[in-house]
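To the team - iron/sulfur cluster complex, inputs and output below.
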Amino acid sequence: MTTRYTEPVLNWYRRHARDLPWRAPGATPWSVLVSEIMLQQTPVARVLPAHRDWLARWPTPAALAADPPGEAIRQWGRLGYPRRALRLHETAAILTARHGGAVPADVDALLALPGIGRYTAAAVASFAFGQRHAVLDTNVRRVLARLVAGRPRPASTPSVAETRLAESLLPAEPAVAARWSVAVMELGALVCTAASPRCAACPVARHCAWLAAGQPADSGVRRPAQRYDGTDRQCRGRLLGVLRESGSPARHADFDAVWSDQAQLDRALDGLVADGLVDPLPDGRYALPGGRPGLPGGR
Ligand code: SF4
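Output:
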């Protein structure tokens, strides 16, 4: 269906959309999938060079699947949450073995891939294959909460009602619906931002329920910003950095230079091993999984 929001948002997107490689006309489904995994927890500015380098090195799932998983972790660099690299490698192997090396267009097939939840499956089906799905990321949820529901921000987890609302706003034509989804997402990223929405520049300001209500403040309890310094997550990042930057496996003592708290170091290292991000070798050293061809730990 077409709503009073459709044309203003689509026209705005036509004029203001950022030029992102995964949105380019020739972008492959693999490029879209990689971008969605990288964007799950990392901002666009940091994803751009990582996505470019990843696609240059592994332009197809088969190319990635042919390398050991440790290389995916190495290439992931400092994007954070490196289990995503491992899952992307697993996905590449599954696509190569079961899907003829192609990203499937079917949402259920996408949902069966590692690390792909409802949002990512809908996003890939929409943006790579022009299908009609409600794509509810944080930006879309915030725009719809303000524009339609008159609330400053959405609830912490998406509700069935929210999904129904998003579906009710989708244009009927699949290709237009896909464009609408990415346009709302972009509006949330560039104009209807979390901290300071630029309502004067918003194409649907005159229809916005939250603006009309005088932008009432949030009555809910805000979650405090997550700390990073000193956390196990930071420690894990440092340990992986040691393995990424050296071309060979590391001894336990090699990690001491990057983290002084031994109990926390051991806990983080155990966690990395349990998550499959680090392989303990028989000689007591540690390596990225699968190592590199020709190195100890290679499979
Ligand atoms: S008018 Fe302001 S709050 Fe409403 S959708 Fe636009 S940017 Fe967001």
